[in-house]
Amino acid sequence: MKSRKPIVIANWKLNGGFDLLCSSVASFVKKSFLAEVYICPPYLYIRDLLHFLQYSVVNIGSQNVSKYQSGAYTGETSAQMLAEAGCKLCLIGHSERRSMFRENNASCQIKLKRAFENNLMPVLCIGENLEEKNAGITKDILSRQINESFEALDIADNSFCIAYEPVWAIGTGQAATPETAQEVHAYIREQLVSLFGQDKAQQIRILYGGSVTKLNTTELLTQPDIDGLLVGGASLDAEHFMSICQQVDKFAMDSNS
Ligand SMILES: O=C[C@H](O)COP(=O)(O)O
Predict the structure, then answer these.
(1) pLDDT category of residue 2 using cuts at 50, 70 and 90
(2) What are the residues facing 69 on neighbouring strands?
(3) Is 47 contained in some domain?
(4) What is the model's pLDDT at position 255?
(5) Contact status, residue 59 vs residue 88, Cβ threshold 8 Å
(6) 167 alpha carbon – ligand 1 mean position (Å)
(7) According to the annotation, is 171 in a ligand binding site?
(8) Active-site residues (predicted)?
(9) How far apart, in whole angstroms, are the C-alpha atoms of residue 115 and residue 82?
């Protein structure tokens, strides 16, 4: 039985257009879930999806958020703007942001703060790359990502999630095995216990991401510390993503929260 409410997030990245938007709306508008379901489209489609899915149980999130509140920062979108638009969640520190847009643990910390200030639920993405995995330093990397992102940050009663996304599994078709992912998730929870105490750490949902498909969803969710999924490529097909959501939803039926 899952003690934490399962959650599944679609991250469209820089993909999709009106076709994907329309097929997703058609698939999800009348469905109900006990699990939490989010779609994070490109910024431009956030308002459209919010409009078309306003009476559905699907929530909308953003793939990123600015660390700035306002001012002369061309191309940025603030947490306040996202919250005002109706977003409920924002991804922070996705590995593609870290590797291609120079984000780091320090910028993640500021973004977490901005999300908390505006009642957006942040999902902090962490994970080791292939070189770090082969060097046997996965735990060091994760520990540093978690500790440096949260140090000196007052989380108060805010809720947030961690998404473990091994970089070598993203878009490669080589997902971590459920056992490997569970081992890492258990380690992440230990780190959360050290930082926030046992009670809070047990409430924090830890998602797995990296080549999730409808074929590995159930076995991943069966693991005790895998509380949800962050889905990239497989979320670009509305029916495929629906199948993932329906499998995740089965775990919500036993959830306490
Ligand atoms: O945010 C999603 C992840 O980067 C996973 O992407 P993927 O499912 O295409 O491997």
Answers:
(1) confident
(2) none
(3) yes
(4) 60
(5) yes
(6) 9
(7) yes
(8) 94 (electrophile), 165 (proton acceptor)
(9) 9
The residue whose CA is least distant from atom 6 of ligand 1 is 232
Query: Which residues is 8 bridged to in the sheet?
Result: 37, 229
The ipTM, to two decimals, is 0.99
Please, are residues 8 and 248 in contact by the beta-carbon 8 Å criterion?
yes
Contact 42, 14 (CB under 8 A): yes
Please give the span between the terminal C-alpha atoms of the chain, in angstroms, as a whole number.
11
**Tokens describing residue 6:** 């399962």
Domain count, the chain: 1
- Whole-model pTM over 0.95: yes
Placement of tokens 């060091």 in the chain: 140
**What residues are in contact with ligand 1 under a 6 Å CB criterion?**
11, 94, 165, 170-171, 209-212, 230-234
Does 213 fall in a domain? yes
Residue 139 lies in a domain: yes
Assess whether pLDDT exceeds 90 at residue 254: no
Q: Is 17 annotated as a binding residue?
A: no
Is the model's pLDDT at 256 over the cut of 70? no
Written as six digits, the tokens of 220 are 């991943």
What is the distance in A from the centroid of ligand 1 to the CA of 38?
Answer: 14
Cβ distance 51 to 16 under 8 Å?
no
Supply the Cα-derived Rg of the chain in whole angstroms.
17
Of 231, 64, 210, 92, the C-alpha closest to 150 is: 92
Distance CA(62)–CA(40), nearest Å, equals: 5
Q: Say if CB 120 and CB 65 are below 8 A apart.
A: yes
At 239 the pLDDT is 96
Q: Is residue 31 part of a domain?
A: yes
Q: How far is CA 18 from the centre of its chain?
A: 23
Q: Which residues contact 195 (CB under 8 A, 6 or more apart)?
A: 146, 147, 150, 201
Domain interval for residue 88: 7-236
